[in-house]
Amino acid sequence: MTIFYTVPYGTELAWICRRILPICCACGTQTARQVGERFTDYLYHTNVQLGASYEISQHSSQRVKDAQISWARWINAADPSEVIFGPSTTQLLQNLAKSFSMVFKPGDEVIVTNCDHEANIGPWRYLERFGIVVKEWRINRDDLQLHTEYLLPLMTEKTRLVAFTHVSNIIGTIHPVRELTSFIHRHGAMVCIDAVAYAPHRLIDVTDLDVDFYVFSLYKVYGPHYSLLYGKKKHLETLPSINHFFIGKEEVPYKLQPGNVNYELSYSLLGILDYFTLLASYHHSGASGNTFQPDPGLFEQIAAHEEELSDALLDFLLSRNGIRIIGETTSGRTVRVPTISFVSDRIRSDEAVLQVDPHRIGIRWGDFYARRLIRDLGLADRNGVIRVSMVHYNTLEEVRRLIGVLNRILK
Fold first, then answer.
1. For residue 126, what is the DSSP state?
2. Other beta carbons less than 10 A from residue 334's beta carbon
């Protein structure tokens, strides 16, 4: 087994486990040291307004531009202008929906799911006040997955966009985005994918997926509290500006970034890529060492390691009576990510987690802003689910430590 906790231990991540063992990474991962270094370097050496003629402003402008270019390459976008930075996934999707509210016409249709985080539901449901018809694509109650047979009856010639999640932040199952997107495109609609729960675990290739819009939070990908929205250029160029009246629709992506980007946070995003590059060189001898080029071999190792973590916890949960795992019960890396939710018929979710807290292990309970899903699954009276969410820097020993605690609580 390859251990991915640090490179070397305790130096590459803002590691809080001196105080608490973080196994709630879907709420926000630990931050790579290189992110903080780039953040402070920007503030101390290039903290000026962009776009001026003097040298330091030109240097500062290039730093922010480099972040956009590098992340476009990292996710395999066709053009840097297809990458939009913003304060949160919620805000980016609200901005996108606001722009679409000036494009869609009364009677046009948008489809959302009942299993997404509210960030990819609420902004689209907001369009109902403009006469847009919003329909709901519901997951199968047996396997808790999205199926096209449930989507097809909802789609008409007026369907303009389908919004769904790559991975539910409750269920953890990986949806077949490429296949679903192809199906939706054949029926004449665009897709908007929430990848917040997927991005910390796997490589992203928006060109291969052929998605129209794809969004995730960078503070859940070892970075600062910031987010990224990808949009196909052909769509972005046609959207109206939501920025100042003199920012034209041709100014992509600035027209969808009211107030502009945060300069120091944007530049610090290069630190995430620095971290992955160092991780690749430490764990994978075939790594290229190129910050702008993701290393598939590294992410294959990460997926294998995370599968082992999931397997240990799932095996334990399956061995206990009165435990219901929400979603896929197998640990296969192509099937799920290590975000595992469950409920006990003997103890409420909040009561269980509060008993874990004194052991200095960080897990959580609740609906995690997927309130519609928790309600539809009938779990609101359990105070939501108990969620354990792991990433590559967690170890098998840490999972066993959690299992030992849960073994005493879930009697």
1. G
2. 9
Question: Quick check: 378 and 207 in contact, CB under 8 A?
Answer: no
- The three-class DSSP label of residue 86 is strand
Could you give the CA distance from residue 217 to residue 92 in angstroms, rounded to a whole number?
A: 10
Query: What's the residue count for the chain?
Result: 411
Indicate the residue type of 296: P
Contact 392, 30 (CB under 8 A): no
Instruction: Round to the nearest angstrom and report the end-to-end CA distance of the chain.
Output: 31
Q: What are the tens digits of pLDDT across the range 299-354?
A: 999 999 999 999 999 999 999 999 999 999 999 999 999 999 999 999 999 999 99
- Report how far residue 132's alpha carbon sits from residue 323's, in angstroms, rounded to the nearest whole number: 41
DSSP track, 11-78: TSB---TTT-EE-BGGG-PPPBHHHHHHHHHHHHH--S-TT-SSHHHHHHHHHHHHHHHHHHHHTT-S
Which residues are within 8 A (CB) of 67 and not within 5 positions of it... i.e. 6 or more apart?
85, 266, 267, 269, 270
User: In angstroms, rounded to a whole number, what is the distance separating the alpha carbons of residues 397 and 312?
Assistant: 10
Residue 291: band (very low, low, confident or very high) from pLDDT cuts 50, 70, 90: low
**Statement: the pTM of the whole predicted model exceeds 0.85:** yes
pLDDT at 102: 97
- What residue ranges do the domains of the chain occupy? 21-30+295-409, 35-271
Which one-letter amino acid corresponds to residue 307? E
Q: Among 311, 290, 286, 312, which Cα is nearest to 300's?
A: 286
Structure tokens at 277: 């590059």
Categorize the per-residue pLDDT at 10 as very low, low, confident or very high, splitting at 50, 70 and 90. Answer: very low
Q: What is the pLDDT of residues 79-113, one digit of tens each?
A: 999 999 999 999 999 999 999 999 999 999 999 99
Phi-psi region of 366 (alpha: psi -120 to 50; beta: other; left: phi over 0): left
Same CATH fold, 35-271 and 21-30+295-409?
no
CB-facing half-sphere around the CA of 211: CA atoms within 13 A: 28
Q: How far is CA 128 from the centre of its chain?
A: 26
Class of domain 21-30+295-409: alpha beta
Q: How far is CA 157 from the centre of its chain?
A: 30
SS3 assignment, position 10: coil
**Four-way CATH pick for 35-271: 3.40.50.2000, 3.40.640.10, 3.40.50.150, 3.90.400.10:** 3.40.640.10
Q: What is the DSSP letter of 333?
A: T
8 A C-beta contact, residue 38 and residue 67: no
